[in-house]
Amino acid sequence: MKRRHLLIYAMFCLMTASSACAGNTPAPGDRKVHREGKYFEAVLPEGWTVIPAGGYGLSPAEKKVYGVELAGPDAGARISAHYFAPGNLVDKTPEKYIRVHSIPEGAAPAAVPALPKAQDGKAGGRKAALFVNITHERGADRTIGGGAEVWEGFAVIPLKKGYYALRYSAPAGKYAEHLPVFEAFIASFKPLLK
């Protein structure tokens, strides 16, 4: 009986050791896919982390906005993807979202961020509106415009019901550095709604 227990224990140890060696720990460069409910999937960029949703204000179900926000390896770099359902409490239509987040007509900034590239102008195999914006971090007194310049790139995918908005923002000096990461995120984006 003792021998049998020893044999079982030895087999357990071998199986545990072999499963650890067989790849249960992700290898560098493995792709991590984030699935946001029934709305979308996207590959998380290596070195970027998911920012937990805050506990203040309305829930995603109450706002009818569902998504994920990622923090980059550098302070201030962010990527987000959201689905805005019909009747959402934020920006009702993709046209309003684009209008709110675009460089105002007639504005002539000294430098403009590069437009994100998407193969054939599509994200997730669907036609996307690509555009950029320039904003500022909030200053120490929490007023808008008092802080550093932030460049943003967007891809908005209209649907019959609602729309998707993919957003990249970074301090102006870091925008070009992380733009290829956002472009890869756009390429990996998979809408789950039509």
How would you describe this protein?
There is one protein chain. This protein has 194 residues and is an alpha+beta fold. It has a single domain (31-191), classed as Protein Transport Mog1p, Chain A (3-Layer(aba) Sandwich), CATH 3.40.1000.10. Helix content is 24%, strand content 30%. It has 4 helices and 11 strands; from the N terminus they run H-E-E-E-H-E-E-H-E-E-E-E-E-H-E. It has helices at 2-21, 60-63, 94-101, 175-188, and strands at 32-36, 40-44, 49-50, 65-71, 78-84, 122-123, 126-127, 129-136, 149-158, 163-171, 190-191. A 6-stranded antiparallel β-sheet has the order 3-4-5-10-9-8, sandwiched between helices. Strands 1-2-11 form a 3-stranded antiparallel β-sheet. Strands 6-7 form a two-stranded antiparallel sheet. Strand 6 (122-123) and strand 7 (126-127) form a beta hairpin. Residues 1-28 have low confidence and may be disordered.
Blueprint (SSEs and pairs):
Blueprint: H1 2-21, E1 32-36, E2 40-44, E3 49-50, H2 60-63, E4 65-71, E5 78-84, H3 94-101, E6 122-123, E7 126-127, E8 129-136, E9 149-158, E10 163-171, H4 175-188, E11 190-191
Antiparallel strand pairs: 1-2, 2-11, 3-4, 4-5, 5-10, 6-7, 8-9, 9-10
